[in-house]
């Protein structure tokens, strides 16, 4: 019963925290087009993870998460003067939070990519609906684990995130594709 009583507030909280990752993902796509990120636009390990898992992602998303977290911390008091999310970004050091969330988000994709390469599923293949869903769970579940064990978020929020975040991530992927920021 406790889980469902927190579900609406937790969903709102997940949406708020997800805005930071969404903004970071959009910023990251622009950052990739800059000269310094061309230097790290090389695969991490092609045989293990495929050609699409590149060093630039492990570097750029943590940096853009720092920027988005800082920006959201600035506007948070103006948006939520009378309450708001239970967990607010202003409660965290924006550098620590941004670097960890951005790094764990992308690092959590690697085991799934490793498995897909062993099963000879091509990178970015959306024909296999099972792996399409798994592709949108791996990163978000990595962040949920980080939130629970490192930042000590409540279990009911993490459980809600287990339901809500894959749907949000699929929506963010669709938006990035519509904006031409993702192939």
Structural class: mainly alpha
Rough shape?
globular
Q: Major sheet: size, sense and barrel closure?
A: none
- Low-pLDDT stretches are none
Would you tell me the overall average pLDDT?
Answer: 88
The overall strand count is: 0
Count of domains: 1
- Count of discrete alpha- or pi-helical segments spanning 4 or more residues: 9
Q: How big a fraction of the residues is strand?
A: under 5%
Q: Which series of helices and strands comes N to C?
A: HHHHHHHHH
How far the N terminus sits from the C terminus, by CA atoms, comes to 42 Å
Estimate percent helicity.
over 70%
Q: Any idea what the radius of gyration is?
A: 17 Å
In short:
With 183 residues, the chain is mainly α. It is built from 9 helices and no strands. It has one domain.
């Amino acid at each position: 019963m406790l889980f469902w009583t927190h579900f609406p507030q937790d969903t709102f909280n997940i949406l708020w925290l997800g805005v930071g990752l969404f903004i970071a993902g959009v910023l990251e796509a622009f950052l990739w087009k800059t000269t310094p990120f061309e230097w790290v636009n090389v695969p991490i390990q092609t045989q293990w993870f495929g050609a699409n898992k590149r060093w630039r992602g492990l570097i750029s998303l943590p940096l853009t998460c720092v920027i988005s977290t800082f920006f959201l911390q600035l506007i948070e008091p103006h948006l939520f003067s009378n309450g708001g999310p239970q967990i607010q970004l202003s409660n965290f050091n924006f550098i620590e939070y941004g670097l960890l969330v951005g790094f764990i988000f992308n690092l959590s994709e690697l085991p799934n990519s490793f498995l897909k390469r062993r099963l000879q599923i091509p990178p970015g293949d959306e024909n296999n609906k099972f792996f399409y869903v798994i592709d949108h769970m791996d990163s978000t579940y990595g962040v949920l684990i980080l939130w629970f064990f490192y930042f000590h978020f409540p279990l009911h929020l993490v459980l809600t995130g287990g339901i809500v975040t894959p749907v949000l991530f699929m929506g963010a992927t669709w938006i990035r594709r519509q904006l031409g920021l993702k192939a």
